[in-house]
Every structure is written in structure tokens, then in C-alpha cells.
Design a protein that fits this description.
By secondary structure, the chain is of the alpha+beta class. The protein is about 25% helix and about 20% strand. The chain starts with 7 loop residues before the first strand and ends with a strand. The mean pLDDT is about 90.
């Protein structure tokens, strides 16, 4: 199983029309997101979502996607 800290993420600032705050997405795991009023809150929420996704894949004996090395984003620390 892949180490969760090797997955990259992207942080996007949400505009007022979207409620403000920040959105975290994981290019290797479409649909796994985090949101928060601050970047720190969004990253923490995204980390919880990432762990939940990896746990769910493990529970049904599915291998998670291999983290991509070509993404231009920061690894989740």
C-alpha cells in the first residue's frame, strides 16, 4: 500500500461565489477533497479524506493508485 504522505495535493482558494475558503484536491485520487476556512484547515480536512479513502480501498482489497511523480504540487506532510 502506498504511504499517504507520498500523495501530492493542490490547494485552491475559493471565490466568494463558492463560499470562500480553500479547497484541497488530490490529482491521483479524484473525488478526495478537503475544505476549510484556512489553508491549514483545508489540508487537515484533505488529510482525513485521504486516510478514509485509503482505508476504504484496503477494506475491499483494492490497491490505491500509485502516487504520480509528475504532479507539480506539494507532498502531504
Amino acid at each position: 500500500m502506498s504511504d499517504a504522505s507520498t500523495y501530492v495535493y493542490a490547494v485552491t482558494e475559493l471565490g466568494a461565489e463558492d463560499g470562500g475558503g480553500y479547497l484541497v484536491t488530490f490529482p491521483d485520487l479524484p473525488g478526495v477533497i478537503g475544505i476549510g476556512e484556512t489553508t491549514g484547515e483545508a489540508i487537515a480536512d484533505g488529510r482525513q479524506a485521504l486516510f478514509a479513502c485509503l482505508d476504504a480501498l484496503k477494506a475491499v482489497d483494492r490497491e490505491p493508485p500509485v502516487p504520480g511523480a509528475s504532479h507539480a504540487a506539494a507532498p502531504l506532510a
